User: Fold this.
Amino acid sequence: MLSVSKNQPSYFWILGTLILLSLLPPLWFYIVGEEGVYTIGAMEMWQRQDYLHQTTFGEFYNRPPMIVWAIGLMAQITGFKYIVVAARLVSLFATLGMAALTAVLARTVINDKIFIVLSALITLTLGDLYFYRGWLAYADPLMGFFTMAAVTVMYFAIRKNSWALMILSALSIGAAFLTKSLTPFAIWYSAFIVFSWNTQDKRLHFSPLTSLGLPLPVLMAYFWFSFVSVHHNMGHSMLSDILQKVLATESMLQYLKKILVFPFSTALNLSPWVPLALIVLFRQRQTIHPLVRQLLLLVLINLIPYWLAPQSHIRYLIGLYPLIGLICAYLLWQSSPVIILWVKRLLLTVVILKWLFGLFLYPYYQEHIRGLNYVQVAQNLLSTAHGLPIYNHDGRSVALNIVNELDRKMYPHHFIELPKEDWQNAFLLSMDPVKQASLYQTLTITGDKIFVYCRGTACQRLSHLKQNY
Assistant:
């Protein structure tokens, strides 16, 4: 096995370079999905100069603002004109950070340069991360990076009996919470139990010094909820969001279907490495390195709640992706030379597919189906308004993407807000009927209908809008 991998170390370095370069084309894609939540939030925050509260359409967005801070700071380099690029750079650097942390842990398992590189490459090329989640301007990659950083640093904190590293780990998981949700705490505290557990005497072994950092994440959350966001019930909102997914009412048939499908859909989303590693695991009995065994246990502990919950999504698992990548790399590395040959072929295949995706397939989709049309709607709407205010009362992704383009063009002068009760001489985007306003035009945007209403002098403006986009 080792001779096969060491005969061609340049092969992995060349593939690694191609993988890194393949991450660049998606930076320039048109806005996708609900990326606008974060890009709009960053533009509004920097215009309002209120850096503690994220807003969308001028209204408070009940989540911590770490991701918006990161996007806003990146936009200081790229310029807010390229806000989507800035947001995706944050996700890209976070994804690369996860791969780098995978390499750090891999070195403690097998101190071989090719194995370390392979572990990072397998993490980077997990299907969901490589083709979609790793570049998408959502909060998930940054939360995943901070979560992986916290777990990695905790491992060394317990191993070296370092209170300083433990506090650094606690601060990292606090940053993960400030990026999106409370769920990283579950990974962090379960990691402490797994790393501290002694399999021989069945007891937890840890130093009182390393335990000093344990209350810190909870204290950070308490401070944030009690003093920074005290008037907005953010804590209640974030906890309710988790409970709604855990306690969601589904029919028994739907729930059983979800239970049956979840393992297969998860493996499929993390192709090709999880399916291949599972085949190796079941067909070839291996002696597993203690750290890999701990990481496998940690992944299973945190995977089961998402499996059993009535509602879950693959993106909620992103904090576990680097651990899954390392486990897969180890199982494949310890297998036969034939498997290593398949790993090489699969890496090459995945890279080719990504280049096709980034240069041809997705750009074609955006030009002809969904992407470019958002930009066209925004340009035509600005031409129609010609200086008159535009408001928005539609929270769907179609409206987010249009508003992102409007805000980007108007930055830093003003941004699209929710309508005031007595709004006049303006246009309003809405998904529902609006009382005491005239329907100016109905737009169909890739199957989504959005209504443009007007009041006052706006109703007299010549329309530059098309009916279908």
